[in-house]
Please model this.
Amino acid sequence: MDKDRELLVTGIGQLGLSASGEQIDLLLAFVSLMERWNKAYNLTAIRDRNEMLRLHILDSLAVLPFVTGSKIIDVGTGAGLPGIPLAIFMPGVQFTLLDSNSKKTRFVRQAVLELQLHNVEVVHSRVESLGRKGEFDAVLSRAFASVDDIMNLTEYLLQPEGVLIAMKGQIPEAELKKINRTYTVDSIVLPGVEAERCVLRINKT
Model:
């Protein structure tokens, strides 16, 4: 087993998940695409392949146990994170990957095409311009703003029982004090990464 595959298989196991050979192949193909496009498009500041596997792929999959619903929107998806790794592992769930950067959505569209992910839609738009009120069961955010700002921008996208799932570093105590909704906070241990990680699930109602 080559180093990259071993790193993924081991890391996914440490996250308490399991993956088929095909899913591992798709994740590795996705990272190779990111590497290739990164040279021209500057998709991510992370250039090292091992770091990509840990800080992009495993970090994205770490949120999987907290993702519920059949229609999910990944707001500020960037290079397709966490949306593409999650879509590979959740083929029965429909993902919308949203970003306002046209270079990044161009890459994500190409990745979706090459990986043949039939459960992914890519949209180039600002979140406040999207419309599509009440369409989604969950909004995913990889910490592109404060929790309060993310809620204000994205809440209209959620159906009444929907949930905002925000991936953050340290538990944002000060931000949480501003939230007048019920929520849960779970710490995540990311294989091979010492930095703190947490997932917030904030209910719309």
